[in-house]
Amino acid sequence: MRSSVVLTLASLLSSALAIPADSSLSKPTGDEPTLLPVKFIDGVPESIFNATSLGIDVFGPVPNDAIRNKDGSVTAPEGSKSNAWLRAQADLGIYSEQLAARGIDVSDKLSKRQGWANIRLTMWAQSNCGGQGVYWDNVEYGVSYYATTNYYAVSTTYRGLAPGERLEFRRLSGSDWCGIHHTNAFGPQNAGCYGNVPATNCLRLYI
Ligand SMILES: *[C@@H]1O[C@H](CO)[C@@H](O)[C@H](O)[C@H]1NC(C)=O
Fold first, then answer.
1. The domain containing residue 62 runs over which residues?
2. Radius of gyration of the chain from its Cα atoms, rounded to whole angstroms
3. Interstrand relation of 166-173 and 176-186 (parallel, antiparallel or unpaired)
4. Which residue from 36, 46, 124, 193 has its CB within 8 A of the most atoms of ligand 1, so it is best to mutate?
């Protein structure tokens, strides 16, 4: 199992890997990532179609083949049920809106799930939100969420980036898993999958 670590702000300040407070103002080196268009099959996003075909309730909790890490993050191994569930979560926002437009309101079902009020961040081992996924719920501002392996796509779930919010994409430099700031995504933006980002180890959300 690959490890992932959440550094709280408090530990950042006291850590040997402390990131200067003004690093969030650094100029990113790469282009802004873009959201992947969602492909629909029979009026359902492909990821939800896929998960449902496997008997997974995409509105239910994460299937129990997920790995709960000590830092509170959850890993969904490639090919697992939890992985299909997690991929579907990236498109749940747009699907909920579509259902609402058809008069089917799923907000009650979703609001019962822990973390609904906040944003979930997921990093994916392969582009287009494929391969192993690792996610953090109840993400806080100004905290580094990082994993010690390279990820090439990122998704936001429950909600997209709000106006004024900025999501920083970072990667390893020396011994600092968040040392290079390569790009930003700026709100307002829908929830979804940033399908193609340069090697990323670390995410930070700011407002
Ligand atoms: C859905 O499943 C097909 C067939 O396995 C796969 O090619 C496709 O990438 C999957 N789609 C998503 C969005 O995961």
1. 9-15+33-206
2. 17
3. antiparallel
4. 46
Pairing of strands 44-45, 67-68: unpaired
Q: Specify the amino acid at residue 168.
A: E
144-160: average pLDDT: 91
For residue 23, being part of any structural domain is answered with no
Query: How do residues 93-119 score in pLDDT, each as one tens digit?
Result: 888 888 888 888 877 776 655 444 478
Closest-CA residue, ligand 1 atom 2, reads 50
- In this structure, the residue with its CA closest to atom 6 of ligand 1 is 50
The total domain count for the chain is: 1
* pLDDT higher than 90, residue 25: no
Please give the model's pTM, rounded to 2 decimal places: 0.81
**Domain assignment present for 143:** yes
Residue 124 included in any domain = yes
